[in-house]
Design goal:
The complex is a heterodimer of chains A (671) and B (344).
Chain A (H helix, E strand, L loop, with lengths): L1 H8 L1 H14 L37 H14 L1 E2 L3 E2 H25 L11 H15 L2 H16 L5 H32 L1 H16 L2 H11 L4 H25 L3 H9 L4 H12 L1 H21 L8 H10 L3 H27 L9 H4 L1 H19 L1 H4 L10 H39 L3 H14 L3 H17 L2 H30 L2 H16 L6 H8 L3 H25 L3 H9 L4 H35 L7 H11 L2 H33 L5
Antiparallel strand pairs in A: 1-2
Chain B lengths: L4 E12 L3 H7 L6 H6 L3 E12 L3 E5 L6 H8 L7 E6 L2 E2 L5 H11 E4 L11 H12 L3 H14 L15 H13 L5 E5 L7 H18 L2 E6 L2 H7 L2 E6 L2 E6 L1 H6 L4 H7 L4 H4 L2 H4 L10 E4 L4 H10 L4 E4 L5 E5 L1 H8 L4 H4 L1
The chains are: A mainly alpha (671), B alpha/beta (344).
């Protein structure tokens, strides 16, 4: 009796009580399932799409409203002169000018002057010299290896494709960095703008790419310039964030030193603040470059040519060997650009004294090599254009290898796949599908309220209500199920691996390095092994999601465990803890807030990857977005995108707040 | 206004909290500690009035959180005080425009920071030349001037180094050089040596005194180290919880502490090294005795001969006039002053 009383009094009851109650109601209320034609309103929001979502009103017709707005922007002429679309297309044409230049340099050449594109030998040599300059021979070796691969394996035109992609990146990355920098500076200088920018960045970063691709198609069109603009929209938020962080973290004294020297506002900005925040700002540039690379495949959906485009075609045709070759090219470029820009971010000015050659050695080496290369190019055509007969391709062998590999594993993999589907994924899916939307709203509200913030509770409830009223509740719950299933598997893999890795310095180093490399892979690459192993099914989607999103789980677990203060560990050992007790009674509880943050990141990664996995045919929100993309239905794409964003933001708000509160209870400082 | 006074602060308040101006007004510009606490205001500086005389070294001394750095920043208007007035050379700093303020800072003020605040991306030379650079002085001229100051602080040959290549002491020399590059009238030093090792600190204090003997600036120096304050100061202002508790020469603080708090600070100071005959003499007894001591002789110098003899020593000033006397009694009283029972 007492026990029951305690349960009723306890906080657990208040949080989960209403949810469980509503859930159990389905045994009394008829027609609760989605299989019935008119499910009860308390379970599935009215006007929702149940199976195929042709045209859906939703409880609130957000999609129609958005489409009306888009129509308005397309048709309405501002001052009777031009429409909003004319304006965006004007900007796009401006971007096109820059693109013409980079494309001419890298792969088109200047036909009117009878000058070809930059010969490969220049690019290879300058990359190697830059590597030496930025960090040393290892980096130079990486850069050299990357471009050598692109040249050697160019049987199917990997070099030209890479140059196309690089031409697009060399416009989109600087543009995104510049926009991010300016917005970041503005946000630091004008508090009111910051209040506006932060939530915008949050939504922009959790919106799936495909949903604004549609808007880009409507307002800009298709092709390389559209791809560049989509990339810029996707890539500037981390730059803005890191600029804000960097500028805010400059030590007060340095700013005061600037003021006392008598700096004007602009002198302060350009001579003190930006240089002092150089490292975080350059890390922002690094992030921008990585985001641009992640976009090369996605931008291919709206017709941007390059590596991404060909990768996509080969994936669709299941020509995995060739796809693999292109995938390696993408990965190599990604790793190289990542390491180069990181080196640039961390590079400190070096003291060089003596004559002009001693002071600028790399400048002179570069000039010298350019002269030599020019001579070579003019004498030997080999250095101008790498002859096709010297190129190689391993795709045939790869194809055969993959085929025999999967054939030999066909039976066990098949068994594993079916087992996963029947005993894990299907039951989990049906649990999520049977959750009443009313109950879910109450649940997130109760958790938010329990975490002590009424504002938080209302925000997350509003997020969930938006999803429910948009008409895509059923699809959204499938997305939630996929993310949740992946999260569970990620935790099962990531936490033990993190614990193992945190035990020794050497292991930590290796594991974090592997994480680094995996994180630089553009997300589409992960679909390759997934399709190879599990063909097209929920299992392959989840497989791809899990490899991609285990990384933060591992990283944060290692970070949390290794950051337990040494004193506490020593105190525990001297009190006689065994290894196991030390882990479970001391380290894990202290690392737990960090692990929660890891779970949060994993969730975000998973949500992002679910959208990409829609490419291999899942039936959640991503499928609807792909459909919206092919119909150019901007309103639908945007609203579904917001649904995805709100799933992410709901989880993010709750988990981050939880972790923060635990940290402050443990007496850790929170940033 | 007195020409001798460089900076004059009167009734400076700096409160942190919601709408502190309104709160101050409602409480007649003088809220009590209880009122502040009750309304959750954090008082950094409370009703501080102090004048900085031309050419003196004024040390503001207090423990962390006593408001000394905030007061310093109010003097240069790095921080806007909640209430009160700051006059710099007779000009009301709180009413000057931003442009004027920039001009004043460019030509009349120099500041040294606790953690050096060097710009990491600039060489020593470029750091020192920075205040000149922002004035728009051309490269050659500013680098020549910077080289002069670098030589002055003894960092010749390190012009091309980056801050991270220098030791803490050397970095602070760069900080000193930078603040001196514009030949300021007033030199603000915010705990300049606190981040340094004790040995280096001593060396830098000597360096500072050497520079001041050449330059004769008006100086406001912040420290939490009473020994440092006594070594360097012409006058010391002691702050406690935002209030200026006492202002005076080191000798005054030791012989006449205004509060127990000040007395607690001065307790461990070796008096024999600091006080001189004039500080401890009996002023009533002005008869010329056989033995005499000079008015500025430190106690440690005269102690042995006074203690050995039973007679009274006359204290004479620079004009050989008798201004008082010391005997065993005065000496013992001065040296063991913390024991209050014996004092009376």
């Amino acid at each position: 009796m007492n026990k029951i009383k305690n349960i009723i009094k306890g906080k657990f009851f208040f949080i989960f009580g209403p949810f469980v109650f509503l859930w159990l109601l389905r045994y009394i209320i008829p027609n609760y399932t989605i299989s019935s034609k008119t499910p009860h309103w308390a379970y599935i929001p009215p006007q929702s799409c149940l199976g195929g979502c042709g045209s859906i009103d939703g409880l609130i017709p957000f999609v129609d409203w958005t489409n009306a707005l888009i129509q308005f922007l397309r048709k309405y002429e501002i001052f009777g002169l031009f429409t909003f679309r004319d304006f965006t297309r004007g900007i796009a044409n401006y971007v096109d000018k820059f693109l013409d230049l980079t494309e001419a340099i890298l792969h088109k050449g200047f036909p009117s002057y009878d000058v070809g594109p930059l010969p490969w030998i220049f690019i290879l040599t300058l990359t190697i010299i830059l590597g030496f300059y930025l960090r040393g021979w290892r980096l130079a070796l990486l850069g050299g290896a990357c471009f050598s691969y692109l040249i050697l394996f160019s049987k199917r035109g990997i070099w030209e494709l890479s140059m196309k992609s690089l031409a697009a990146i060399s416009v989109s990355a600087p543009l995104a960095a510049l926009i991010g920098l300016c917005l970041g500076i503005l946000a630091v200088k004008r508090k009111r703008f910051a209040n506006f920018l932060w939530p915008m960045l949050n939504i922009l970063q959790s919106l799936p790419h495909f949903s604004y691709l549609i808007l880009v198609v409507i307002f800009v069109g298709i092709g390389t310039k559209a791809g560049v603009i989509a990339t810029v929209i996707f890539a500037f938020p981390p730059m803005a964030r890191l600029t804000i962080l960097g500028l805010q973290n400059i030590s007060q004294e340095i700013k005061e030193a600037g003021v006392m020297a008598g700096c004007t506002k602009w002198q302060m900005l350009f001579k003190v603040e930006i240089p002092a925040a150089r490292s975080p700002i350059m890390l922002g540039v690094n992030q921008v470059i990585m985001q641009c690379l992640a976009m090369i495949v996605i931008a291919a959906f709206i017709g941007q040519p390059g590596l991404g485009h060909d990768l996509l075609i080969r994936l669709q045709g299941l020509r995995l060997g060739e796809a693999f070759e292109i995938g390696v090219a993408v990965v190599l470029i990604a790793i190289t650009l990542d390491r180069y820009s990181q080196a640039l971010a961390l590079k400190e000015p070096e003291r060089r004294e003596g004559n002009i050659f001693n002071r600028h050695p790399y400048l002179f080496i570069s000039i010298f090599s350019i002269i030599i290369c020019t001579v070579l190019v003019f004498i030997f055509p080999f250095f101008n254009e790498y002859p096709k007969e010297y190129t190689i391709s391993a795709s045939v062998y790869l194809d055969n290898g993959i085929k025999s590999f999967t054939r030999s594993l066909f039976v066990p993999l098949g068994i594993f796949r079916d087992w996963m589907l029947i005993y894990f994924l299907m039951p989990l899916k049906s649990i999520f599908q049977s959750m009443p939307w009313t109950g879910v709203i109450l649940l997130v509200g109760a958790i938010g309220w329990r975490l002590g913030k009424i504002k938080l509770a209302l925000t997350v409830m509003l997020f969930v209500f938006f999803i429910a009223s948009s008409g895509y509740w059923v699809r959204a719950m499938i997305t939630v199920y996929m993310v949740f299933a992946s999260l569970m598997i990620c935790a099962l893999i990531g936490i033990p691996l993190g614990i193992w890795a945190s035990k020794k310095e050497s292991r930590t180093k290796i594991v974090l390095n592997i994480c680094d490399i995996f994180q630089t892979f553009p997300s589409f690459i992960y679909l390759l092994p997934a399709i190879m192993l599990f063909q097209i099914s929920d299992v392959s989607a989840i497989f791809a999601i899990v490899i991609y999103s285990s990384i933060p789980m591992i990283r944060y677990t290692v970070f949390g465990l290794r950051n337990v203060p040494q004193q506490i560990i020593e105190a525990s050992i001297t009190s006689g803890c065994t290894e196991r007790q030390l882990l479970w009674k001391v380290k894990m509880p202290l690392a737990f807030p960090e692990i929660i943050l890891g779970a949060n990141q994993t969730l975000m990664f998973a949500l992002f990857m679910v959208m990409i996995a829609g490419f291999i045919g899942t039936v959640d929100l991503s499928q609807e977005i792909f459909r919206a993309l092919s119909f150019s239905d901007g309103g639908k794409g945007l609203i579904i995108g917001l649904c995805v964003a709100f799933i992410g933001l709901t989880a993010d708000r709750l988990l981050v707040e939880w972790s923060k509160q635990m940290k402050s209870k443990l007496g850790f400082k929170t940033h | 206004m007195n020409k001798q006074i460089k900076i004059s602060c009167s009734n400076i308040w700096k409160l942190y909290g919601e709408n502190p101006e309104k709160f101050l007004k409602e409480n007649n510009n003088n809220p009590s500690t209880e009122q502040l606490k009750l309304n959750k205001y954090i008082p950094a500086v409370r009703d501080a009035s102090i004048d900085v005389k031309t050419g003196e070294i004024l040390v503001i001394m207090g423990l962390s959180g006593s408001g000394k750095s905030t007061l310093l920043r109010c003097m240069s208007k790095l921080i806007q005080p909640t209430d009160g007035q700051v006059f710099f050379e007779g000009k009301d700093l709180l009413k000057t425009s931003d442009e004027e303020l920039i001009e004043i800072r460019r030509h009349k003020m120099g500041m040294v920071f606790q953690h050096f605040a060097l710009l990491p991306h600039r060489t020593v030379l470029q750091n020192v030349a920075f205040p000149l650079e922002v004035q728009g002085i051309d490269v050659e001229k500013r680098e020549n001037r910077a080289k002069e100051v670098i030589k002055l602080v003894g960092l010749e040959g390190r012009e091309k180094y980056y801050p991270r290549e220098l030791s803490g002491g050397q970095q602070q020399r760069v900080g000193l050089a930078r603040s001196l590059a514009v030949e300021p009238d007033v030199w603000f030093l915010d705990e300049p040596f606190s981040a340094l090792d004790p040995l280096i600190r001593k060396e830098m204090q000597n360096e500072f005194l050497r520079l001041q003997s050449m330059l004769k600036k008006t100086i406001v120096f912040i420290t939490h180290d009473f020994d440092e304050a006594i070594r360097l100061a012409d006058r010391i202002a002691i702050m406690y919880e935002g209030l200026i508790v006492q202002v005076g020469t080191p000798e005054e603080l030791i012989t006449k502490p205004a509060t127990d708090y000040v007395a607690e600070f001065t307790k461990d100071i070796p008096r024999s090294k600091l006080l001189n005959a004039e500080n401890i003499m009996n002023e009533k007894e002005k008869k010329l005795h056989e033995n005499t001591v000079n008015y500025n002789d430190k106690i440690e110098k005269i102690a042995s001969k006074v203690l050995k003899s039973e007679s009274i020593f006359s204290v004479i000033n620079a004009n050989k006039e008798v201004i008082g006397s010391v005997s065993k009694k005065e000496l013992i009283k001065a040296l063991f002053a913390e024991d209050k029972n014996e004092q009376d």
